[in-house]
Design goal:
561 residues; Heat Shock Protein 90; six-stranded antiparallel β-sheet; 3 domains; Beta-Lactamase; 15 helices; single chain; alpha+beta
Amino acid sequence: MSLRIRTLLLVGWAIVVLALAVVVSSALILKRSFLELEAQSMRRNVGRVHDALNAEVAAIDRYATDWANWDDAHEFMADRNHEFIRANLVPATLPGLELNLLALIDTAGKVVVARAYDLAADREVPWPKAMDSLLASGSPLLRGHETGGVSGLAMLAGAPLLVAARPVRRSDRTGPSRGTLIMARFLDSVEVSEFGQTTHLAVGVLRPTDFGLPRGLAPTRSGAEDEASAKVLPIDERVVAGYALVPDVAGRPAVVLEASTERSIYARGQAAISYIHVSVLVVYLLFGALTIALLEWSVLGRLARLTADVVTLGKSRDVQRRVDEKGRDELATLGREINRTVAELAEATRQRRELFDLAIMHDFGTPIAVMQGYLDLLFDGVMGPLSERQRKAVQTTAGKLRELASVRERMLEVSGLDAGKVELCCGPVELEPLVSTCVADAAPFAHDRGVELAAEVRPGRIVGDGQRLKQAVDNLLATALKYATAGTRVRVLAWVEDGLLRFSAGDEAVPVARPTPDLRFAAGIESALANAIIEAHGGRLWTETKTGAGPAIHFEIPATA
């Protein structure tokens, strides 16, 4: 994996992890905040329902206070005047006050007069016997003449009752109490429905023992207390409910008020979280794209270009080629150091080549000239007569010495081409005559090697040094034939394609399990000279070895070199 891809992956993963961390943490924090806000709102709603309940109790208590602090009622409790009953406790009295029960009880706990009315059926009904348990000795309702009265809830045969009990006194609220006045109304479904209409909530009245109620409900007596003690329980994703436990007048758990509504706050919170998540993802995507783009522009792209320049520089034989060193940062410094190192290496190579050329021309050339002179003297008999056998030996030695001089000349050519000291005489060159001539010149050598030589040349024209190119093709054909397998065919291909002259020469023997020498190590000075000519034309040379066959030699040069 390249450094660029690794860096981009690391940056991408870092951005993804950071975005996920922000999304998850914001979701947890915001969800908790909206749930707390929802619970706070529901506690206030429960308080509103409780306030509505207290308002109804307060209304009954006002009626009870007005009736209890009344001279006529005070006198009635003393003389049991039936005129008071006939005038004031008529059938229309209870429905007019929206009461189910009304009773006057003396200080001994005896019921003096009692009336019961069914508001739903709009008729009088018998006094419920279950009231006897509420009016038993010690009941909070009968201690009104001692405590000043009570109001609140009472449970009558399992049914909640809104009740108020006040001591019977004179209108100026003086004198001793002569008993207790009790007024009550059942907390039925109609009453609960009115609570819902008043508070715009779905209201219910439950028993403390009903299943599914939240644990830890504490008795409350006011709406303000409900906001602190009410319990909130989500019913599902759309509905949330709040619960408050309301005690009776004796302080015992009586009913549980339930207020439920749609989870609008929670829904808005979920929508807000979604919007935030989308915003965060968009922001991080833009931030990530911008970061990667800046990183690519300022570091990775330049590093990739520097790497490509270094690779190209390594493959090129152009000693003047350099890498990009623009800028003032570390990459620019690295580029300058590479260029400096390349320049120093080129200079060192040039000096070594000059020394090598000097050694070839002088140190190597002088002994050859001396040896050639002595051989001429020997052959001419200046140093004495030679036998026939000696003359042949001298001739053979002189021939090998001339070959050595030829090798020296070719080495000088290679050195000159590599150093750029040999100028190419470039001009138009027809491809087909060039290659055909080389193939024809190599045909005798192919015949001696027992190798068939075949050429396929497509007509084309290039620009180059025709003489040097012929020299290169001759040398390469000689190398290909030298290492070709006897009895096989060496195929020569040459054509112009995509602005390049392409050349191939290779053995078409059937592959067998036998290694073949690599041209780079066994080709000799001829291939080195051919390579120098090809590179001087801006091309490249390479070989391909096959088991059981000779090497395949390939080169390509620009057609307009």
